[in-house]
């Protein structure tokens, strides 16, 4: 099932640190050999300062703790270096006066929303200049690389308050988002991402290409949030369906369609987006395809119910193996994958709805097969639907069929409907003609 | 000996000429005037000759201008052009003075005209708009003299009739002419001294120049060399002959001139000679080919690599000059030589990296004298890219002009690798020196030679290029230096020997795609807008012929080329049209009927496919082309080997239209839905009007016959008629395409059948359908389901029995009429709203019409943009299909939209003569495309208007 794994396509658009959760998940699922994942992790860690973690992995990769698997000197040296730097930051770093200032709540009160004023004030009264502020950024970055995400976030918040360097403050914003995501502070992360989005959309980027890249990053990062935040399901649809973002997906990140498709399927209130989604999927079918998009295509383009069902079966594995979709929740002693269940429930309903729309009479046993259910299960399900008047049909229990009531719009109604519109429009027209004329008349009288 | 005798007069002429020099500055004016006046009257006789505005009189003084005889040996180039012109002018003025003295109005008039003509030249040479003071002075002088002459009635009476006539003419002319320079004349009259001084200064300066000149002349090594050679080489005296004879056989003379010990030929000699030849460009009596030969000879005697390079540049441009007309092309053998010269140039540049070719820097006078061992950079003026582009254009032109069915054409095509190798080398060179912008231009040229080649053709070209050269073409090996050696093998071997460093064979990667990709990335990075756009089109084209529809489509949509295609130059528009055609074919092969139709329909809506694709001239019924237009059009034509097969294109278009239109027609027997393809409908009407239907002959007949069959649901016959077309054999994957076509025909037959006959059935089993249309059960089920979902078919499945149960939704006649009325009413309301908007738009002060117009426009744009994104884009794209006709048509469409609002609905349609039809077609599609969104917008604006 590794063929539908998107990690390799997602990773280039994510921060180094954001890839770890994905790798963790993969490790858990056991899709790839353990060693490969560990090696990948190690490579990933090489660019960070999380040396202890790297050493641990190195040990487990090269045969436990028994001597020969011990990390080489390079790693040890690096560790010493990192620790040294950390100590220096805390003791002699250039930003120390700034930390002292920030630690004092009374002094922090002195800050005002006006950045220029703040800079001036810091310079005048505390001899804290731009250099210190920039050092704050560097320290934050260092902490981030060490894996101290909450520290990094805290520093970066401060930095953003003080900094006047717009380029760096955008980067700081990315850093905050990453930190918050890694700290699982979804609300805060969402907020930061929205801020980022504003910047990306509003700012005149150096080049459209750059802007596109930023949008794609934003979408990838937001996946973490959208599949964890309670309002994420709407969020993802809102964001991804914006023209510019949809465009970006089509241009350079069509694998994101999977998440969009899942989100649309699961979101009952956003059914209207389905049409647009299908259109996009169809356009991109040559460059991206997975069981989830195939399912929608079968169902809504080809009306191939067997095919749809086939893809739906495959969807299960895809969802389970996807780091964002296959999240498990332990309830007591059973684990469930809530997204999968929800997806299946909705997908089943999709099939059923479509099926009913074009049928007058359906054999329930076949229906059950199509829905991947047992007969009595299916019957119960249908009964519930009929009862809750979501479905206008009757079950013929003797022959085991479901008979749909065909309701079509009366011709007269149609005609009336089409003329009703004319009526309002004409009314509007006359209104707007008469009003100015009356106004003019009154004006004339007034004179 | 005879030779000595003959040599003497030559020397004597030279002497006398230098004596004249001396006279020019040392003697009093009077004497000179006498001479001149005589010659002035001479010039009267052979007036035509002096027409160039040059005094013929001072023949010896100004031999520079005379290429017909003596002393082409050097002193003509010595003086700068500017001094020369001023000098000539002065002499004309002097001549006029003389004429005044003898009261000769005829010659005065002549001189005056000459002076005026000359004035232009002088001004041009001086590079200022200022009128030379000398001229003004002359005018003053003339005016005075004229007044005097007119005052003296007595004298006037005595004049000869011709003289008097001239006087009167002069009076008129002068009056007219002087008006232009009134101010200056006024000034001159007020301060005659300043003008006088100036003139005198000029004169002095010039005298100095002349002095120098004459000195230079004495020292002229060239001449010395010649006289030496004449003195020394006795044996060849027969040929040596007098100057006049040598003149006629310049190349021989050159031989003689340089036929001596190489050490005696100096850089100066060669340089002088070069300048001389270059200066002769465009003169009467200089053979273009001779110039090339002379220059080629010079390349061999060039003393330094830089000089050789300089001369080579001149050779190349002289070679381009060989064919003067725009229509014809450069002779093939000259072209080949030119290619070789280019390679030679590149050799030099490779060998001596310190030589820099530039156009911006004006090289110093003696720049090229620096030898091979010179270390600094040497600047040589030249433009490799321009040469290369010209070379390409000439190649293109030959192919345009050659009959494609002859062997010549094929032969010529085989020479393409030769150009490619030059292009490749130039590009390499430019990349090496870091001129990537220029490299991108060159890359584009290469792309344009490769883009239309499918892999098979590309492979053939690659093989051809890899063959040993002599087997490619026999005459090829003797080109270049060897060739020149053949021409005049008496000549010495070239002084500067440049080894062949640059590869003489092009290297091609395995697949055309790789080559394209490589070139593309260079162009995208460094090319200018036009280069990029063209390259992009070529890229799309290449993707399309390689059956990568989705890639091609995405490229086209992402590039937004459709937006700006109307603003591009015509050849790019043609390229765009070709791309669209190829994209349509590609979509068709991939089985994407709608897409294919979208791409092609626009091309055929005008009925001028040939013109749009530049594949032949089409006669227009509505309007005759002027010869000028025709010539232009001919110049745009694509060479035959780049053509897109028109029959295939037409078949593709019509079949797509058929597959779309037939079910559409069947569905809309009651409600008159708008036809999807107007062209197809029209053709169908024509064919239905025929009384007798013969067996199909051309593509159109075939498709019409198939349509008739399909209409009845007879898919077998429809397919067999279509598959009997000859053109399918042009397709690479013929079986595959026909298979696809068969399936499509079956599908559409099924749909048509259901549309037409559903009213006759209460129920219909799936089984029956599958047997009728030879489709798999699943497939048929899918098609019928789709129709049900889209409410094209009012029916539903009965699953246990696998039957379609039809719902009777037949409208009664009354109901049908009611629907029609509702439609018409909505049209009425709509036009009311428009009228209202147009009125208030003009009168309401709250909503200025301009603003509103823009609002509409931008909303429109927004919608189109959206089309790109959400890509019904393809359909949208098709609609916006450019082309020239298309472009103007579209303009019409817009106008109509706005015009409609302004109650001038008919105006837009008449946009441009013959374009009437497309204009009309476009209007409709345009307005319908705006459809719903527009309605909404209108409602909004209406509200706003109401409130105000």
Automatic annotation (TrEMBL), chain A:
PCI domain boundaries: 225-409
Pfam (any one): eIF3_N
GO cellular component: eukaryotic 43S preinitiation complex; eukaryotic 48S preinitiation complex; eukaryotic translation initiation factor 3 complex, eIF3e
GO MF, one annotated term: translation initiation factor activity
PROSITE patterns: PCI
The entry's keywords: Cytoplasm, Initiation factor, Protein biosynthesis
Keyword Protein biosynthesis tagged: yes
Superkingdom, natural source: Eukaryota
Subcellular location: Cytoplasm
GO terms of biological process kind: formation of cytoplasmic translation initiation complex
Family: Belongs to the eIF-3 subunit E family.
Function: Component of the eukaryotic translation initiation factor 3 (eIF-3) complex, which is involved in protein synthesis of a specialized repertoire of mRNAs and, together with other initiation factors, stimulates binding of mRNA and methionyl-tRNAi to the 40S ribosome. The eIF-3 complex specifically targets and initiates translation of a subset of mRNAs involved in cell proliferation.
Subunit note: Component of the eukaryotic translation initiation factor 3 (eIF-3) complex.
HAMAP family assigned to the protein according to its UniProt record, in alphabetical order: eIF3e (MF_03004)
Name of the protein in question: Eukaryotic translation initiation factor 3 subunit E
Organism: Dichanthelium oligosanthes
Lineage of producing organism: Eukaryota, Viridiplantae, Streptophyta, Embryophyta, Tracheophyta
Automatic annotation (TrEMBL), chain B:
A GO MF term: translation initiation factor binding
Feature: compositional bias, Polar residues: 856-870
Compositionally biased region (Gly residues): 874-914
Domain PCI, chain residue ranges per copy: 640-811
Keywords per UniProt: Cytoplasm, Initiation factor, Phosphoprotein, Protein biosynthesis
Biased composition (Acidic residues): 26-45, 195-220, 229-241, 467-479
Top-level lineage group: Eukaryota
Protein biosynthesis in keyword set: yes
Record's compositionally biased regions (Basic and acidic residues): 72-87, 480-490
Regions crossing the membrane: none
GO cellular component: eukaryotic translation initiation factor 3 complex
Region (Disordered): 1-87, 189-250, 465-492, 837-948
Functional description taken from the UniProt entry: Component of the eukaryotic translation initiation factor 3 (eIF-3) complex, which is required for several steps in the initiation of protein synthesis. The eIF-3 complex associates with the 40S ribosome and facilitates the recruitment of eIF-1, eIF-1A, eIF-2:GTP:methionyl-tRNAi and eIF-5 to form the 43S pre-initiation complex (43S PIC). The eIF-3 complex stimulates mRNA recruitment to the 43S PIC and scanning of the mRNA for AUG recognition.
Protein name from the UniProt record: Eukaryotic translation initiation factor 3 subunit C
């Amino acid at each position: 099932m590794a063929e539908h794994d998107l990690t390799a396509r997602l990773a280039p658009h994510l921060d180094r640190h954001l890839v770890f959760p994905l790798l963790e998940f993969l490790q858990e699922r056991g899709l790839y050999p353990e060693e490969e994942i560990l090696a990948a992790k190690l490579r990933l860690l090489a660019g960070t300062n999380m040396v202890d973690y790297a050493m641990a992995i190195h040990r487990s990769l090269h045969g436990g703790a028994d001597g020969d698997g011990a990390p080489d000197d390079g790693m040890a040296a690096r560790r010493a270096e990192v620790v040294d730097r950390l100590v220096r930051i805390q003791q002699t770093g250039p930003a120390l006066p700034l930390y002292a200032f920030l630690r004092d709540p009374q002094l922090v009160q002195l800050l005002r929303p006006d950045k220029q004023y703040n800079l001036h004030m810091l310079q005048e009264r505390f001899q804290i200049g731009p250099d210190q502020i920039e050092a704050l950024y560097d320290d934050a970055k260092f902490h981030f690389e060490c894996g101290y995400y909450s520290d990094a976030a805290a520093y970066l918040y401060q930095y953003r308050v003080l900094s006047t360097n717009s380029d760096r403050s955008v980067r700081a914003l990315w850093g905050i988002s990453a930190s918050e995501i890694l700290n699982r502070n979804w609300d805060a992360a969402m907020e930061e991402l929205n801020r980022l989005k504003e910047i990306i959309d509003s700012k005149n980027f150096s080049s459209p290409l750059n802007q596109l890249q930023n949008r794609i990053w934003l979408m990838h990062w937001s996946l973490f949030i959208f599949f964890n935040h309670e309002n994420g399901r709407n969020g993802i649809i809102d964001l991804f369906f914006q023209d510019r973002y949809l465009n970006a997906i089509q241009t350079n990140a069509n694998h994101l369609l999977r998440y969009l498709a899942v989100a649309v399927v699961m979101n009952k209130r956003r059914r209207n987006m389905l049409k647009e989604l299908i259109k996009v999927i169809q356009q991109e079918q040559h460059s991206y395809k997975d069981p989830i998009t195939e399912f929608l295509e079968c169902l809504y383009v080809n009306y191939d119910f067997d095919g749809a069902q086939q893809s739906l079966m495959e969807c299960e594995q895809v969802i389970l193996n996807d780091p964002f979709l296959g999240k498990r929740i332990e309830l007591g002693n059973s684990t469930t994958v809530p997204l999968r269940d929800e997806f299946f429930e909705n997908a089943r309903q999709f099939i059923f709805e479509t099926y009913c729309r074009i049928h007058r009479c359906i054999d329930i046993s076949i229906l059950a097969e199509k829905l991947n259910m047992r007969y009595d299960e299916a019957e119960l399900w249908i009964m519930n639907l009929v009862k809750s008047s979501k479905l206008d049909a009757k079950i013929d229990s003797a022959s085991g069929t479901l008979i749909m009531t065909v309701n079509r719009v009366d011709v007269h109604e149609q005609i009336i409907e089409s003329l009703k519109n004319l009526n309002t429009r004409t009314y509007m027209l006359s209104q707007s003609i008469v009003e100015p004329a009356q106004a003019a008349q009154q004006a004339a009288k007034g004179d | 000996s005879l030779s000595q005798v003959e040599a003497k007069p030559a020397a004597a002429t030279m002497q006398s000429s230098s004596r004249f020099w001396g006279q020019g500055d040392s003697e009093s004016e009077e004497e000179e005037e006498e001479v001149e006046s005589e010659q002035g009257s001479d010039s009267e006789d052979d007036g035509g000759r002096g027409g160039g505005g040059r005094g013929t009189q001072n023949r010896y003084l100004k031999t520079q201008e005379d290429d017909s005889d003596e002393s082409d040996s050097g002193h003509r180039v010595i003086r700068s052009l500017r001094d020369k012109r001023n000098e000539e002018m002065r002499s004309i003025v002097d001549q006029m003075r003389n004429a005044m003295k003898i009261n000769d109005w005829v010659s005065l008039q002549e001189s005056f005209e000459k002076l005026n003509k000359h004035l232009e030249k002088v001004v041009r040479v001086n590079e200022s708009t200022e009128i030379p003071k000398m001229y003004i002075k002359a005018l003053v002088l003339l005016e005075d003299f004229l007044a005097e002459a007119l005052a003296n009635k007595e004298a006037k009476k005595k004049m000869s009739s011709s003289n008097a006539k001239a006087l009167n003419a002069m009076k008129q002319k002068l009056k007219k002419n002087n008006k232009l320079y009134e101010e200056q004349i006024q000034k001159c009259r007020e301060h005659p001294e300043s003008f006088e001084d100036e003139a005198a200064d000029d004169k002095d300066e010039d005298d100095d120049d002349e002095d120098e000149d004459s000195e230079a002349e004495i020292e002229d090594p060239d001449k010395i060399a010649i006289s030496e050679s004449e003195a020394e080489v006795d044996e060849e005296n027969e040929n040596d002959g007098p100057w006049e004879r040598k003149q006629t056989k310049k190349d021989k003379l050159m031989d003689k001139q340089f036929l001596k010990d190489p050490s005696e030929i100096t850089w100066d000699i060669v340089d002088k000679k070069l300048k001389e030849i270059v200066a002769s460009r465009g003169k009467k009596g200089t053979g273009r080919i001779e110039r090339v030969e002379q220059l080629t000879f010079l390349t061999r005697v060039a003393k330094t690599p830089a000089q050789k390079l300089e001369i080579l540049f001149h050779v190349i441009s002289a070679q381009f000059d060989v064919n003067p007309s725009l229509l014809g092309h450069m002779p093939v053998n000259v072209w080949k030589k030119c290619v070789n010269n280019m390679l030679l140039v590149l050799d030099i540049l490779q060998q001596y990296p310190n030589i820099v070719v530039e156009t911006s820097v004006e090289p110093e006078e003696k720049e090229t004298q620096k030898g091979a061992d010179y270390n600094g950079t040497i600047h040589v003026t030249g433009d490799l890219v321009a040469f290369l582009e010209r070379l390409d254009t000439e190649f293109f032109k030959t192919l345009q002009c050659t009959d494609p069915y002859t062997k010549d054409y094929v032969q010529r095509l085989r020479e393409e690798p030769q150009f490619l190798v030059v292009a490749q080398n130039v590009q390499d060179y430019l990349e090496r020196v870091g001129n990537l912008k220029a490299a991108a231009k060159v890359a584009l040229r290469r792309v344009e030679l490769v883009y239309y080649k499918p892999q098979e053709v590309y492979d053939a070209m690659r093989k051809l290029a890899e063959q040993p050269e002599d087997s490619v073409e026999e005459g090829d090996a003797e080109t270049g230096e060897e060739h020149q050696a053949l021409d005049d093998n008496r000549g010495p071997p070239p002084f500067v020997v440049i080894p062949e460093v640059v590869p003489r064979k092009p290297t091609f990667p395995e697949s055309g795609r790789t080559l394209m990709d490589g070139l593309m990335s260079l162009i995208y990075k460094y090319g200018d807008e036009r280069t990029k756009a063209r390259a992009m089109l070529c890229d799309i084209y290449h993707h399309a012929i390689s059956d990568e529809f989705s890639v091609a489509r995405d490229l086209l949509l992402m590039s937004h080329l459709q937006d700006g295609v109307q603003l591009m130059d015509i050849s790019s528009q043609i390229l765009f049209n070709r791309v669209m055609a190829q994209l349509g074919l590609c979509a068709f092969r991939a089985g994407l009927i709608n897409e294919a139709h979208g791409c092609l329909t626009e091309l055929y809506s005008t009925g001028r496919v040939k013109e749009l694709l530049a594949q032949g001239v089409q006669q227009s019924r509505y309007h005759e082309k002027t010869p000028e237009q025709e010539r232009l059009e001919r110049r745009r034509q694509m060479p035959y080997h780049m053509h897109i097969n028109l029959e295939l294109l037409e078949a593709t278009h019509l079949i797509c239209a058929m597959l779309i239109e037939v079910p559409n027609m069947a569905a809309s027997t009651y409600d008159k839905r708008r036809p999807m393809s107007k062209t197809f409908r029209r053709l169908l009407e024509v064919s239905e009007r025929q009384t007798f239907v013969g067996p199909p002959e051309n593509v159109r007949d075939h498709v019409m016959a198939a349509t008739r069959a399909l209409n009845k649901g007879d898919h077998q016959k429809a397919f067999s008629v279509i598959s009997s077309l000859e053109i399918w054999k042009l397709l690479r994957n013929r079986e595959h395409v026909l298979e696809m076509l068969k399936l499509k025909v079956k599908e559409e037959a099924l749909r048509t059948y259901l549309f037409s006959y559903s009213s006759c059935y209460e129920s219909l089993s799936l089984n029956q359908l599958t047997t009728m249309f030879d489709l798999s059960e699943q497939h048929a089920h899918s098609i019928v389901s789709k129709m049900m979902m889209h409410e094209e078919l009012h029916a539903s499945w009965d699953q246990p029995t696998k039957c379609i149960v039809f719902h009777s939704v037949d409208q009664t006649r009354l109901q049908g009429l009611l629907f029609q009325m509702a439609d018409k009413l909505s049209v009425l309301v709509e036009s009311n709203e428009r009228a209202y908007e147009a009125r208030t738009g003009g009168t309401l002060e709250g909503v200025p019409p301009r603003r509103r117009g823009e609002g509409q426009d931008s909303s429109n744009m927004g919608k189109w943009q959206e089309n790109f994104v959400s890509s019904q884009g393809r359909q949208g794209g098709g609609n916006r299909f450019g082309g020239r006709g298309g472009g103007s048509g579209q303009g019409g469409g817009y106008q109509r939209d706005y015009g409609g609002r302004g109650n001038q609905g008919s105006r837009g349609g008449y946009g441009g003569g013959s374009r009437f039809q497309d204009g009309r077609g476009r209007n409709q599609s345009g307005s319908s495309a705006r459809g719903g969104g527009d309605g909404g917008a209108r409602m909004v604006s209406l509200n706003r208007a109401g409130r105000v």
